[in-house]
Description:
Structural class: alpha+beta
Strand order of the largest sheet: 1-6-5-4
Helix content: 40-55%
Number of domains: 1
Number of helices: 7
Radius of gyration: 17 Å
Largest sheet: 4 strands, antiparallel
Strand content: 15-25%
Shape: globular
Distance between the termini: 23 Å
Amino acid sequence: MNKSESIVELSKAMANFQAEVKQPLKDKNNPFFKSKYVPLESVVESITESAPKHGLSFTQWAQNDAQGRIGVATLLMHSSGEYIEYDPVFMNADKNTAQGAGALITYLKRYSLSAIFGITSDEDDDGNAASGNKQQVKQTPISQEKVGELKTAVISFAKDYGADEKSVLENLNIRDYTKLTMQAADEAIKTLNNWRNQS
């Protein structure tokens, strides 16, 4: 990940953006989980409705690595000139066709933008959602056992898709395993599972 010398103004703008962003409707079906998710165009629309007035913009581009794997890099910019460039997670397309490559690029763009801007692009299918329980869940500090479970899941994902641990963590917006809550760790593991099944 590359960034400008200072990201103070960018960070303030992101905080203001996330305080008012409207989460998009989940109106596309996921055949694997029999649930709904937000398509790329709706993620982009949700971002561009509020981001410009906070001086925020982004650009994304696809690229290949030496092994021919596909990745999508994202550059987050602020009108002050500050920026953060997020490294791509490189993966192999499910099918070695233009259609397969296009599907993977769309998938990577959607998840990168969702992670960076805090867009909930997948339906919550945990026990509370299934039972209709709307009670606030207490945030519990992460245990060493859960740290190990999450780290194993990240490393396994990186290995299976030809990525590296650092880039997977960046796309999950995780800087330090030990700073997460149990709930955030479970959500990260669920996201990795979604990535596997939608690639």
